Amino acid sequence: MLREVTATRYVAPLRSGGSVPGVVEADDLGTYVVKFTGSAQGRKALVAEVIVGELARALGLRFPELVLVHFDPVIADGEPHQEVRDLHAASAGVNLGMDYLPGAKDLTPDLAQYFRVDPLEAGRIVWLDALTVNVDRTVHSSNLMVWPTLGTVPARLWLIDHGAALVFHHRWDASDPAKAYDFHNHALGHYAPDVRAADAELAPKVTEDLLRAVVAEVPDAWLTEFGTPDEMRDAYVGYLHARVRASAAWLPTDFPTREELAAEEALRAAQTRQGRPKWLKQVPDLHGKPAAEQDWSVHLG
Ligand SMILES: Nc1ncnc2c1ncn2[C@@H]1O[C@H](COP(=O)(O)OP(=O)(O)OP(=O)(O)O)[C@@H](O)[C@H]1O
Ligand SMILES: [Mg+2]
């Protein structure tokens, strides 16, 4: 069971996240990133967060603790922006919290240039993304964090944000569990991910029992699309179990090299420049670059 905590202080919205998660402190003195049930991404995103995150943890990947957060919008009364206030008002009750990793940095393309990732670890992460059809771990938005960045232990990769995984749950009837997946722009594609080793190691671990245990962590209140919550759990278990058995069909290979990706970016940049009026042609090229506020590489020199 996920632990339950009550948010006691609202710290700030995380505006870099599309769903505008909030950082809160809770009654256990922890600090959490809260994904709200009232966000435009909806409850399915939270279902995906729980299932994929807990599966990652069970397979030995680093993933911050998830908790259920009781949230009363009153604690965020000082939030000045109406759209964020509306999000809070629509989210009174139980939401999803993730342990906040203080000082963690997003794995941006710049940071990735000198942060080493072992091909085996990269392979395990890519394999998990392929199994769970995660469309949001790309070079543009890695949803990987580097932490800790201060202290004596080495910085390691942490997985976050699986809200865009399990895309099949948006089209249950039309999804083939053996469908191949395009990992062309995967954030770890240029680390030579050893997906075959990951498949040999991880596929046997993804048993029906493990899937049942993971899916059991999703609160009933978020499993309302069809049937009873347990019938929905069966559907997730059935799909993922069929997919893991079909891994030979979707195992991603042929990752483009760092140089090929750079050449593609350069081509895209040239096309953009071509379409611009003369007076805009000298504007700095931001293709493939992180937004300024996400570029923490300067701090890691
Ligand atoms: N547990 C965490 N600890 C520290 N920082 C975090 C944590 N979770 C998220 N963040 C920061 O907040 C940003 C947004 O989080 P996240 O990607 O989970 O939100 P989102 O709304 O799902 O975003 P999007 O859909 O736009 O990718 C992350 O890129 C990261 O910088
Ligand atoms: Mg994200």
Describe this structure in words.
The protein has helices at 42-58, 82-89, 109-112, 119-131, 195-202, 208-215, 229-245, 247-250, 258-274, 297-300; strands spanning 3-13, 22-26, 31-35, 66-71, 93-99, 105-106, 144-147, 156-159. Strand 7 (144-147) and strand 8 form a beta hairpin. It folds into 3 domains: 3-99; 105-250, no CATH class; 260-295, no CATH class. The strands form 2 sheets. Strands 1-2-3-5-4 form a 5-stranded mixed beta barrel. A 3-stranded antiparallel β-sheet has the order 6-7-8, with no helix packed on it. Mean pLDDT is 92; it is low at 292-301. Helix content is 33%, strand content 15%. Residues 17, 141, 143, 161 line the site of magnesium ion (MG).
What are the main properties of this structure?
301 residues; alpha+beta; 3 domains; 3-stranded antiparallel β-sheet; binds adenosine-5'-triphosphate; binds magnesium ion; HipA-like kinase domain-containing protein
Query: Counting H and I runs of at least 4 residues, what is the number of helices?
Result: 10
Shape: globular
Q: What's the rounded overall pLDDT mean? A: 92
Q: Give the ligands present.
A: adenosine-5'-triphosphate, magnesium ion
Task: Give the fraction of residues assigned to helices.
Answer: 25-40%
The count of domains is: 3
Sheet having the most strands: 5 strands, mixed, barrel
